[in-house]
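Here is the promised in-class demo. Please do not try to memorize the tokens; focus on the logic of going from shape to residues.
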């Protein structure tokens, strides 16, 4: 999914030296200023001292969409887009996907370090035992139209959770913070699965506490009349890995939304509802669905050369390729690719012709100077849609599938924001471009 409007991790910096400064001459006044460079950045507030007169407000910086502005300090996720590196709390994503589980990665993101055995056991127990939602919330979900978009259902019910846990407003309480974190990670799959069943007109399935986090989600999606749903371990693992891959991605649009809204000291359920809303937008979620549509249009492997020519002629876009931050193979795409075959085999979709087209398309694009010169490599979305399709998950649900794991990242970032000594309510400046000091004209005199 088109996750990122992000600008990278702000990887500049290093040990401060006497030369770590910028000399700025304001040509309007001839004055020269020394501006400190720390961690590869200058402080926008240091420019405020540059004025043309005593009553001048001072120089501001202009950066729509924050494409070159770090909005916080963060120790959660490191991305080096040029090298194709993604690390959470210092651990490479490849190792986490191979050796860890989604719940352990969620613990790592939230607590800052890997859990010891009893800590992990308690974390898993706590999350497993908070998966149920209040019956009134279930009833309110039932009130949605049969064809309500599951993401619209999710964002409103996440906000509604705020009314069920009013004590979460007490941001100074470590217990309340912890309970909100546990509740959100625990209940997000339940809300997501209820939204899915609602669209199909099927009864909602209650959580099964005997199953793993991913296994329980599969049960809530697919359980019918059987007494006990037994998840296929291959699907359970593939889903768990997909969720590790989507758990956090530093200051992307939805994370920035959670931080900005949370900076008003609103409760965490309301702050996360803002994150879900941001993710709902087609520029953030939705690219993996576009990959599927593209593969359908290409239809056969024989049509690939014509399609690629269309891309080079700028008539088409190669969906699932390219990234604002990664100018190399998106490390998440490498990992997903390994799980595609496994999922297709488990779901009986091994003959899916789209997989063959995707693999051949990738091979040819990577052999083509047009794409390598522009540093266009597969991103996380190139194969994830194929996995979701094999799991029989409708495309409306793709973004919901993303919101489940990203909840862990949003919460980790929200907690970090609350404890940041530099925290202030987010309140950008503007360059005013409208009229000034007009004389009010009564309605009869407006021509
Ligand atoms: N297909 C064809 N050409 C492309 C593509 C593409 N997918 N992406 C970039 N280019 C071209 C672009 O036209 C430009 O060409 P030229 O130099 O001739 O003008 C060149 O490559 C450089 O691109 P850019 O404008 O610097 O790239 P960007 O950083 O603005 O865009 C992007 C990043 C992700 C929006 C873009 O690559 C894209 O639209 N990709 C397809 C959609 C997609 O797969 N999105 C999912 C992103 S990953 C999600 C996640 O992180 O969760």
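The designed amino acids, position by position:
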């Amino acid at each position: 999914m088109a996750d990122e409007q992000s600008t990278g991790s702000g990887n500049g910096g290093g040990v401060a030296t006497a030369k770590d400064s910028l000399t700025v001459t304001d040509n309007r006044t001839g004055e020269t200023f020394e501006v400190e460079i720390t961690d590869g950045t200058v402080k926008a507030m240091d420019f405020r001292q540059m004025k043309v007169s005593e009553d001048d407000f001072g120089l501001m910086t202009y950066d729509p969409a924050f494409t070159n502005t770090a909005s916080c300090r963060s120790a959660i996720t490191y991305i080096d887009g040029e090298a194709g590196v993604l690390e959470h709390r210092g651990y490479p994503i490849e190792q986490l996907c191979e050796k860890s589980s989604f719940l352990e990665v969620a613990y790592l993101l939230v607590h800052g370090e890997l859990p010891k055995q009893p800590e992990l056991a308690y974390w898993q127990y706590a999350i497993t035992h908070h998966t149920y939602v209040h019956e009134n919330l279930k009833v309110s979900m039932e009130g949605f139209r049969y064809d309500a978009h599951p993401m619209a259902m999710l964002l409103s019910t996440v906000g509604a959770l705020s009314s069920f846990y009013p004590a979460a407003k007490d941001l100074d309480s470590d217990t309340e913070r912890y309970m909100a974190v546990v509740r959100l990670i625990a209940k997000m799959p339940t809300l997501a699965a209820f939204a899915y069943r609602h669209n199909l007109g099927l009864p909602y399935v209650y959580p099964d506490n005997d199953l793993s986090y991913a296994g329980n989600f599969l049960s809530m999606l697919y359980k019918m009349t059987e007494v006990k749903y037994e998840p296929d371990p291959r699907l359970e693992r593939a889903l768990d890995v997909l969720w590790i891959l989507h758990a956090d991605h530093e200051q992307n649009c939805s994370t920035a939304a959670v931080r900005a809204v949370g900076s008003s000291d609103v409760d965490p359920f309301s702050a996360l509802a803002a994150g879900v809303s941001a993710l709902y937008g087609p520029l953030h979620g939705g690219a993996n669905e576009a990959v599927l549509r593209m593969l359908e249009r290409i239809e056969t492997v024989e049509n690939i050369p014509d399609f690629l020519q269309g891309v080079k002629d700028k008539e088409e876009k190669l969906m699932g390729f390219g990234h604002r931050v990664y100018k190399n193979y998106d490390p998440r795409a490498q990992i997903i690719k390994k799980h595609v075959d496994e999922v297709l085999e488990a779901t009986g979709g091994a003959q899916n012709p789209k997989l063959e087209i995707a693999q051949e398309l990738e091979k040819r694009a990577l052999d083509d100077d047009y794409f390598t010169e522009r540093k266009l490599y597969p991103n996380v979305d190139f194969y994830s849609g194929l996995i979701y399709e094999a799991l029989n998950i409708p495309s409306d649900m793709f973004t919901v599938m993303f919101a489940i794991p990203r909840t862990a990242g949003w919460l980790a970032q929200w907690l970090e924001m609350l404890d940041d000594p530099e925290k202030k309510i987010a309140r950008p400046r503007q360059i005013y471009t409208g009229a000034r000091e007009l004389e009010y004209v009564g309605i009869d005199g407006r021509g």
